[in-house]
Write a structure and sequence with these properties.
Layout lengths: L7 E6 L14 E2 L2 E2 H9 L7 E7 L5 H10 L2 E5 L4 H10 L5 E6 L7 H11 L6 E3 L13 E4 H10 L3 H5 L3 H4 L7 E3 L18 H14 L8 H10 L15 H12 L4
Helix pairs in contact: 3-5
């Protein structure tokens, strides 16, 4: 794929104090917590050198640390509110040069997408690569890739709390500054209407059913397997039709209207 591109680290943002579903990263799917499934799925990657859980100094997050120590996964404890800084410090704690940003609410994340996007990222001169700039993949398969140096720059440039909550938001909303690569889903999984993210109890019950149907057959089930299951069993998603998701673009616009645009 490439030579001498630097250490590649996947960071997983995880905390216990989610407002809508507290403790969601340790919710059980087929006998293992959400976070452990994500770690195991990421560690199948051919290109990742390290996986680091980016958690917080809050004592409520001690169970996350205990899980990481139990299964032998590295972790970093940083700011609870400044997620951008926490991810940056997590990557630097293992001397990484490239960050693959993952969130702890994506228990069906596919390592194949990570490897494909890394290959695309290193095929040219890019500052940022993502499969979520233009929404074609279902939510829950989101992967963002960028150099540590870029995030260090963004950390200095913007003080917006929205940018510091949504780690890569500033990068992909400033295409005049950064060279962006947007990967769009192929026809089979081009279903942006589908959402497989763990934010609410309804999400949990839904994803638990997905795991019960797929994980028992193949623990390394793919994104295509998930999409095929949902298209063939649309009743699985009916309970999620009225679930409200955060809109980082709206939050960013509201902050800029109040305090001015970060340049």
């Amino acid at each position: 794929m490439y030579k001498n591109k630097g250490k590649i680290c996947a960071t997983i943002e995880a905390r216990m104090t989610s407002s809508r579903l507290p403790g969601k990263v340790l919710k059980d799917f087929c006998g293992k917590p959400d976070l452990q499934h994500i770690i195991e799925r990421l560690k199948r990657s051919k290109y990742l050198d390290e996986v680091v859980v980016a958690t917080t100094v809050n004592r409520d997050d001690d169970p996350i640390v205990e899980l990481c120590e139990k299964i032998g996964c590295k972790y970093y404890r940083g700011s609870e509110n400044d997620v951008l800084l926490r991810v940056l410090e997590s990557a630097k704690s293992v001397d990484a040069e490239i960050i693959v940003e993952i969130t702890g609410d994506c228990p069906v994340i596919d390592w194949r997408h990570i490897d494909k996007l890394l290959e695309m990222f290193f095929s040219g001169e890019y500052d940022f690569a993502s499969n979520a700039i233009d929404r074609t993949f279902p939510r829950g398969f989101d992967v963002d890739i960028f150099p540590v140096a870029i995030l260090e720059e963004v950390n200095v440039i913007t003080k917006s709390p929205v940018d510091h909550e949504h780690v890569s938001l500033y990068i992909y909303t400033h295409p005049e500054k950064y060279r962006l690569l947007s990967w769009k889903a192929h026809e089979k999984i081009n279903h942006p209407e589908l959402e497989i993210t763990l934010d609410t109890n309804e999400d949990y019950e839904f994803i638990k059913k997905v795991y019960e149907k797929l994980y028992q057959i193949d623990p390394d089930f793919s994104a295509e397997d998930v999409v095929e299951l949902l298209l063939d069993n649309q009743q699985l998603t009916e309970a999620l039709e009225h679930t409200h998701r955060k809109d980082p673009f709206m939050e960013q616009r509201e902050w800029e209207e109040k305090y001015g645009k970060q340049v």
